[in-house]
Amino acid sequence: MWSVPKVLFFTVVAATNMTIVHMLDFCQKADSECQSQDISPSALQPRAQILNSRWNASVLSLIQNLNHFRVSSEKLRGAFPIDEVQGNAVRTVKNCIFSESSPTPLKGRLRLAAVSKDVLEGLLDLDMSVTQSEEFLLYTSGGRCLPGSQPLAHRYGGHQFGYWAGQLGDGRAHLLGQYTNRKGDTWELQLKGSGKTPYSRSGDGRAVVRSSLREFLGSEAMHFLGVPTSRAASLVVSDEPVLRDQFYDGNVKTERGAVVLRIAKSWFRIGSLEILSRSGELDLLRKLLNFVIEEHFPSIQSKDSDKYLVFYSRVVNDTAHLMAQWASVGFAHGVCNTDNFSLLSITIDYGPFGFMESYNPGFVPNTSDDEGRYSVGAQASVGLFNLDKLLDALRPLLTAGQQLAAETVLKGYVDIYKTRIHHLFKAKLGLLGDDVEDDYIIALLLQVMEDTQADFTMTFRQLSEASAQQLHKHNFTQAWALEDLSSHGHFADWLSTYLQRLSRQSHDKDVERRGRMKGVNPRYVLRNWMAESAIREAEMNNFSEVVLLHRILSSPFITQTSAEEAGYAARPPRWAQGLKVSCSS
Ligand code: AMP
Ligand code: MG
Predict the structure, then answer these.
(1) Does this model's pTM top 0.90?
(2) Ligand 1 centroid vs 190 CA: distance in angstroms?
(3) How many structural domains does the chain have?
(4) pLDDT per residue as tens digits for the range 471-488
């Protein structure tokens, strides 16, 4: 097993001698284009037809009556055997991908804490007026089933903190069905916190307000930062009491249940394949892989004898890109188990995640992660570990030659990651073209940031906002993060090297440099204290701060008056220092 050097996030050495394997070419394009795309003409044909017909039918209006919003699980039910046992009794499940399981309605009054207009209108074709109805609250919390819905709970396993944990599955999530929108895109709708399933183990099937609010805001924030992720449509808060020992210290408190309606193109994970491979259910493993490839990797030919190898190389490539994107915004997932790693390489299952504030490769957002296994700086290595587990799951379906080729593919992961992160950090510094000094400029800045505990987000943002003239003059009166940096003995050297490098970009105007940098360096990320403050208000049924944060984080690259007034780009308040997040949710 190879390991990514611990410092990889930061050393960003330019990649040379890249391993050339199936489909693994480094993408030189803009961020949003860098995930592998399936745009073969044959793939586009049926999509275009669907798009035309649906467009004609619904171009004029969004859906205003929820009874007309139909979801379906027919495709999933048609593709796979369903668990023969009915009911939510906790059990070991075999020979299926899904079990039938209905949400358990939440008790007490329901309150709509937040909705995502972008998701409802843009992805689900729903008019915002539907959110005013009582029905909406019921549909989005598990109190009533959407038209067409036959809810399912997915069976999966996973490696947790390095060890095989056996069957996990959707213990508190219900897949309501798929919805194909008028653009022709199919989304899978899931409720999280909607009650017990056969996979609940000793859990109560619920999710509390604090974790649900964090998932809602966290996933939406990541989307608007340009990082591939699941999305959140709504957050409903109930009065149902839910007992939680938040910090596992014997201090059990009564909290309240909440449900997030979240959507993704697919919720299949590495653990979805692992459980089938481990239990020797190879026909089902093949079936699931064929389904995932056909639905989500249409450029891979179904008749290609190397299709599983090509699929694997795509996941390796896209996961390397995702890990680099996480690092570029200082995002630490918190629980990078294989059951939380998507086969589509999107960010899923938001738990004790955190955006790093003071720059520290050892930043661990999850206080339950004593050993710092999932620190922000370890995520690249963890991605490699998880991909190795994926390869283990695929091995029974690969020939000896294909397994060797897949191992070579995996060896290429490090270079893909290094190249992408180098590219991302160059963009964060506004550097164009290639220069021998680029690695040094990036590495030294990160070292100075680490030594001075400078704020990760605001250092890059303030470098984006300051003019070259201000930087030359060391004029940091409005720039608290740069002020912190400037106390370092090497900062002046770094700054002059950086400014010289910028001055060599002969066709680049300073205003253009700043514009470019402001487009990739957010001014606002979901800092723990911001989420905590919104949680405290939400616990008292005041959701205005969630709504405000959601709005602000939907345009993280644009300076907004309300965000400035709330201090979201200011030095974090003192009380934020002691904040902790645990696995409990
Ligand atoms: P997570 O850490 O949220 O990714 O969860 C790991 C596994 O535990 C998943 O299978 C979850 O569905 C399950 N799980 C976590 N919390 C609960 C709960 N309160 N009730 C039932 N299952 C849970
Ligand atoms: Mg999970």
Answers:
(1) yes
(2) 14
(3) 1
(4) 999 999 889 999 999 999
